[in-house]
């Protein structure tokens, strides 16, 4: 399932269109692809619009997370140091999570969808309230960029992985 899990991470090419991005999402069928809406920075990527036209440089990294429980929320990581929670039906940005001082490399929903988790190149991971966007905890202790973060299946623990070649269980 896609429940709160990463559905795709990709290094984009500026010439890509919506179809190019969608074709790289595993399990996205042709019929779903036709109905898919893709947004970047609050702007809908239309079928024939290149990512470059929207200001996306070649080599930009995308991570797409889908919340199948509600079917309406998508959480994205960004090179600008933010993560964003989106309404997938309308394309509206529900909440922007500010607080990292480096590229956000990983995002995740908690199993109950009450918390959001981000990991970044600033050597931290952060836990956020999904309802308010407030940063609840900063997880500090890695010696290099935090590249990945995930919740345990029961949501009680967080696992982070870093470029310092360590993993930490919090």
Structure description:
This protein is mainly β and 170 residues long. 6% of the residues lie in helices and 42% in strands. It has a five-stranded antiparallel beta sheet, with no helix packed on it. Strands 8-9-10-11 form a four-stranded antiparallel beta sheet, with no helix packed on it. Strands 12-13-14 form a three-stranded antiparallel beta sheet, with no helix packed on it. It is globular. The model is unreliable at 1-5 and 66-70 (pLDDT under 50).
Features:
single chain; 170 residues; mainly beta; five-stranded antiparallel beta sheet; four-stranded antiparallel beta sheet; 14 strands; 6% helix; globular
Topology pattern, helix = H, strand = E: EHHEEEEEEEEEEEEE
Q: Averaged pLDDT, please?
A: 80
Strand percentage lies at 35-45%
Largest sheet: 5 strands, antiparallel
| Largest sheet, spatial ordering of strands | 1-4-5-6-7
Tally of helical runs: 2
Cα shape: globular
Radius of gyration: 16 Å
Q: Given the helix and strand composition, which structural class is it?
A: mainly beta
How many strands in all? 14
Fraction in helix:
under 10%
Terminus-to-terminus distance? 26 Å
pLDDT below 50 for ≥5 consecutive residues: which ranges? 1-5, 66-70
Layout of helices and strands, plus pairs?
Elements: E1 5-11, H1 18-22, H2 30-35, E2 39-40, E3 43-44, E4 61-67, E5 73-77, E6 83-87, E7 93-97, E8 104-109, E9 115-120, E10 124-129, E11 135-140, E12 146-151, E13 158-162, E14 167-169
Antiparallel strand pairs: 1-4, 2-3, 4-5, 5-6, 6-7, 8-9, 9-10, 10-11, 12-13, 13-14
């Amino acid at each position: 399932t896609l429940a709160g899990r990463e559905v795709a991470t990709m290094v984009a090419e500026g010439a890509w269109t919506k179809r190019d991005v969608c074709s790289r999402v595993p399990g996205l069928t042709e019929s779903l692809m036709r109905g898919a809406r893709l947004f970047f920075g609050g702007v809908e990527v239309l079928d024939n619009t290149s990512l470059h036209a929207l200001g996306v440089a070649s080599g930009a990294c995308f991570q797409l997370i889908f919340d199948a429980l509600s079917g309406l929320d998508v959480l994205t990581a960004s090179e600008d140091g933010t993560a964003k929670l989106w309404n997938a039906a309308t394309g509206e940005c529900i909440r922007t999570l500010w607080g990292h001082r480096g590229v956000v490399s990983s995002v995740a929903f908690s199993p109950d969808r009450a918390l959001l988790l981000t990991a970044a190149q600033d050597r931290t991971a952060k836990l956020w309230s999904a309802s308010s966007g407030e940063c609840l905890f900063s997880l500090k202790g890695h010696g290099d960029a935090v590249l990945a973060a995930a919740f345990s299946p029961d949501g009680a623990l967080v696992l982070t992985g870093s470029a310092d070649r360590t993993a930490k269980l919090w």
